[in-house]
């Protein structure tokens, strides 16, 4: 059966105020990005240069940079679904070297797909008066999408650069873009399309 992908509008340029914008990098950790990771996403490594470009732009504009870090206990119930991955304190749970957080960045440990679930993320965004969230990372239709949806349900604007997310399958990738556009009224663009201006 062939499925036709609905048209997903793309914004060529998105201008954002760095004082009320956060770049959120979801789960760019060894277990998801590296080929020898326990839950490797085939296209994750290809997104690294695009995410790095966004990080550099955000830092140079003094926009907020937040990393999420999947962080599981040894007997985490989620392992029944996906197998053991991102085990707390292991190599697999570490953020990849190319995207190492700096002291001025925030790292939010997450225990479920949604980075807002029982974490400090919403508190950080509200204290920093954030209105816009640029959401990048992996796995697109799981942790990226749940985080984007949770941001939208809290009335943050969601901007998703399509070259800065990765999924296990092509279907999952397009399903994510469709949901962000159609259901959460987010903006789909590219890393180069995002510009910071006060």
TrEMBL record:
<dbReference type="GO" id="GO:0008936">
    <property type="term" value="F:nicotinamidase activity"/>
</dbReference>
<dbReference type="Pfam" id="PF00857">
    <property type="entry name" value="Isochorismatase"/>
</dbReference>
<protein>
    <submittedName>
        <fullName>Nicotinamidase</fullName>
        <ecNumber>3.5.1.19</ecNumber>
    </submittedName>
</protein>
<feature type="domain" description="Isochorismatase-like">
    <location>
        <begin position="21"/>
        <end position="191"/>
    </location>
</feature>
<keyword id="KW-0378">Hydrolase</keyword>
<dbReference type="InterPro" id="IPR050272">
    <property type="entry name" value="Isochorismatase-like_hydrls"/>
</dbReference>
<dbReference type="InterPro" id="IPR000868">
    <property type="entry name" value="Isochorismatase-like_dom"/>
</dbReference>
């Amino acid at each position: 059966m062939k499925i036709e992908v609905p048209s997903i509008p793309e914004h060529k340029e998105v201008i954002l105020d760095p004082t009320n914008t956060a770049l959120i990098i979801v789960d760019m950790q060894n277990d998801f990005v590296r080929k020898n990771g326990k839950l490797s996403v085939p296209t994750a490594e290809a997104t690294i240069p695009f995410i790095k470009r966004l990080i550099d732009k955000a830092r140079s504009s003094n926009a907020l940079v937040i990393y999420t870090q999947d962080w599981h206990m040894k007997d985490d119930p989620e392992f029944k679904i996906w197998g053991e991955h991102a085990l707390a304190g292991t190599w697999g749970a570490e953020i990849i070297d190319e995207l190492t957080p700096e002291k001025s960045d925030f790292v939010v440990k997450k225990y479920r797909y949604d980075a807002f679930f029982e974490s400090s993320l919403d508190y950080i965004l509200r204290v920093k008066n954030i209105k816009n969230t640029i959401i990048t990372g992996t796995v697109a239709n799981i942790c990226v999408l749940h985080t984007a949806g949770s941001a939208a349900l809290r009335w943050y604007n969601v901007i998703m650069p399509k070259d800065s997310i990765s999924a296990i399958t092509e279907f999952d990738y397009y399903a994510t873009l469709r949901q962000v556009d159609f259901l959460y009224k987010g903006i789909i663009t590219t890393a180069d399309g995002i510009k910071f201006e006060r």
